[in-house]
User: Fold these one by one.
Assistant:
Number 1:
Amino acid sequence: GNSVTQMEGPVTLSEEAFLTINCTYTATGYPSLFWYVQYPGEGLQLLLKATKADDKGSNKGFEATYRKETTSFHLEKGSVQVSDSAVYFCALNRNTGNQFYFGTGTSLTVIP
Amino acid sequence: DAGVTQSPTHLIKTRGQHVTLRCSPISGHKSVSWYQQVLGQGPQFIFQYYEKEERGRGNFPDRFSARQFPNYSSELNVNALLLGDSALYLCASSYEQGPYEQYFGPGTRLTVT
């Protein structure tokens, strides 16, 4: 089957700390991988994506590399800010339709 | 341009009742998907509609149904509501089918008492 597993939260970091949120996936075929972010009271927003192995998605200082050999797509940021506090979702799409499979989400709180 | 809009924002219903949720996609987007997000969980896929036809269905009972109109807006209907249907219902639109970016609306918060 198709599924996404994320590291459990919540994660609390001090401002300017390094962030890693782990994500691994199980999928048939060659999926595309995504990170979405959900700020309090808002809908999900696409943060970054990668469509094939070894691709690196990046946006707003966040990066994730599509690793086929380890079936992973870990999210990283070198220096987090208070404004990065949100819930982060890893997701995959099997490229055969529009169905996205989401992980359970990781809540991040950044304290000044 | 306006983003994906959903109505109503919040809704409280009683067990056994029926509910209709509405979604307007971004202008020009032909695909609409519906997701259920239970508190503390990731969104679960319910339906996808493209060009007014159902193109995908998740593992949800027949109490859940949807349709897409000629202007690409969509309705999600849930019959015989159960307490477990309490969730945030998200609508997402994209220009085409496939692994394209989905733009999510703010959701409808449904509470079943």
Number 2:
Amino acid sequence: QKEVEQDPGPLSVPEGAIVSLNCTYSNSAFQYFMWYRQYSRKGPELLMYTYSSGNKEDGRFTAQVDKSSKYISLFIRDSQPSDSATYLCAMSRHGSSNTGKLIFGQGTTLQVKP
Amino acid sequence: DGGITQSPKYLFRKEGQNVTLSCEQNLNHDAMYWYRQDPGQGLRLIYYSQIVNDFQKGDIAEGYSVSREKKESFPLTVTSAQKNPTAFYLCASSIQGADYGYTFGSGTRLTVV
């Protein structure tokens, strides 16, 4: 079983839709949670960062972490064609168990159609 | 501006050749990483280094080598022992522990011809 599971999609939605992207994980030691956005043939860029449980909002993007369910989500409101990209979740452990490496999901490819 | 630079953007390798991919960062990050990305397989860790003159193998190190002689630089050599080198290669850097995530370069696309 992989430490982090992410549905690879592809996910296709019409412009203006609300998009929900999700990852599940198995290791309760994870404390830092991130979402990266990767456009085709580019490097991933950090989109959202959350520590421990809770919500974080940034414009049209909301990241949620539910540590009791080992489940994280990224919501995109009023999706735009420019949101078409691959979205990767990532997480890291805290403290003495931290290996200094992020654990990535496989990435979900999103297409927003005009 | 601080950032991480990979070069070249595109690289072609003949069978049996070694090639070296460059990665330079001016973020003053201690840790650096190399990933390989293939369609449908996500990111796979090749090598990483948390301090100068030290590095560790990742999940798919066979056929690759690295060096970390300077904090700013972490070149990756794809050797002839790597039988399927065609892929998109990503370099990243972070502070120690990666608690705040990685900064990625723009990638190098390597193709065997």
